[in-house]
Amino acid sequence: RLSYNYYSKSCPSFDKIIQETVTNKQITSPSTAAGTVRLFFHDCLVNGCDASILVSSTPFNSAERDADINLSLPGDAFDLVTRAKTALELSCPNTVSCADILAAATRDLVTMVGGPYYNVLLGRKDYRISKSSYVEGNLPRPTMPMSKIISMFAAKGFSVQEMVALSGAHTIGFSHCKEFKSNLYNDTHYNQRFAKALQNACADYPKNPTLSVFNDIMTPNKFDNVFFDNLGKGLGLLESDHGLYNDPMTNPFVKIYAKDENRFFKDFARAMEKLSVYGIKTGRRGEIRHRCDAIN
Ligand code: HEM
Ligand SMILES: [Ca+2]
Ligand SMILES: [Ca+2]
């Protein structure tokens, strides 16, 4: 059974340890927040929020995190979970799941960079399976048509509005050049000066595949609604971001969120609460991992 105070008896310092770990990590590595939000999203959409994304591959198993779409997930996000787990194992051994750590840390990071606070139910167990072959078809790609992205979320019970609100996470963080490079030359949805600037920023990309650009060029480190305002000005980065503005199904929500940050925060918070319990495992369907990167 899930509850908001699941660890109040078994690990009373849970909230404090997560909060402290998050604060220290985010201050020393400011890209942690965006990386962790994406890590959590990629965990949840593939078979639920069950920490399956955290497992490392072995000679006998190619794990989720080695699926091509997950290779760009930053080490800092994994490191954050490891640090929190280490601290929690000292205070309350064998008690806190990696899935709960990731869910709570994500919430704290969103709040820390300016986004809304929301409640996270606790009591998830960690899944005993993680396979790279499960990933395909469960995560959206920027080259997918909006209708495909919509149906992918719908298949998991998320409405168009919830999908648009969740996509507002692109108000922080960055994307590697390869994720948007191909459509810069002939896509008329881009502001022309912006497209030129992106071409310059990515010019060396074939030699340097680590080159990347902020998702929200205006306020890249602040969780706000500026991402939605950018879209109407041709300042979206990914093709799918432009799609949110150009598709008649999603455009009304983009416009609402661009105008009304409170509304965006409310809808994002509610959608994140819903995402946070998607496909979770309780009881004997999962375990409390000793290490977040290995099944017990
Ligand atoms: C709607 C379809 C979506 C598509 C096609 C998409 C695609 C992408 C891509 C290609 C990147 C760049 C990754 C890189 O180059 O390292 C990215 C980054 C990011 N995505 Fe999404 N995404 C979507 C929705 C979401 C949702 C729902 C969330 C969270 C709730 C999210 C959170 C993020 C974050 C925070 C980053 C920045 C990561 C970082 O800075 O390390 N995305 N996304
Ligand atoms: Ca998962
Ligand atoms: Ca922003």
From TrEMBL:
EC supergroup of this enzyme: oxidoreductase
Cofactor note: Binds 1 heme b (iron(II)-protoporphyrin IX) group per subunit. Binds 2 calcium ions per subunit.
Listed Gene3D superfamilies: 1.10.520.10, Peroxidase, domain 2
Binding positions for substrate per the UniProt entry: P140
Residues carrying the site annotation Transition state stabilizer: R38
Keywords: Calcium, Disulfide bond, Heme, Hydrogen peroxide, Iron, Metal-binding, Oxidoreductase, Peroxidase, Secreted, Signal
Reaction catalyzed: 2 a phenolic donor + H2O2 = 2 a phenolic radical donor + 2 H2O
Intrachain disulfide bonds: C11-C92, C44-C49, C98-C292, C177-C202
Binding residues annotated for heme b, in chain numbering: H170
MF-aspect GO terms: heme binding; lactoperoxidase activity; metal ion binding
CDD domains xref list: secretory_peroxidase
GO BP term, pick one: response to oxidative stress
Cofactor(s) listed in the protein's UniProt record: heme b; Ca(2+)
Occurrences of domain Plant heme peroxidase family profile (ranges): 1-296
Annotated binding of Ca(2+) 2, by residue: T171, D216, T219, D224
Record's subcellular location: Secreted
Any Gene Ontology CC annotation: extracellular region
Alphabetized InterPro entries for the sequence: Haem_peroxidase, Haem_peroxidase_sf, Peroxidase_pln, Peroxidases_AS, Peroxidases_heam-ligand_BS, Secretory_peroxidase
Active site: H42 (proton acceptor)
Ligand binding (Ca(2+) 1): D43, V46, G48, D50, S52, E64
SUPFAM superfamilies given in the database record: Heme-dependent peroxidases
Protein role: Removal of H(2)O(2), oxidation of toxic reductants, biosynthesis and degradation of lignin, suberization, auxin catabolism, response to environmental stresses such as wounding, pathogen attack and oxidative stress. These functions might be dependent on each isozyme/isoform in each plant tissue.
Family classification: Belongs to the peroxidase family. Classical plant (class III) peroxidase subfamily.
The protein's name in its UniProt record: Peroxidase
Source species: Salix viminalis
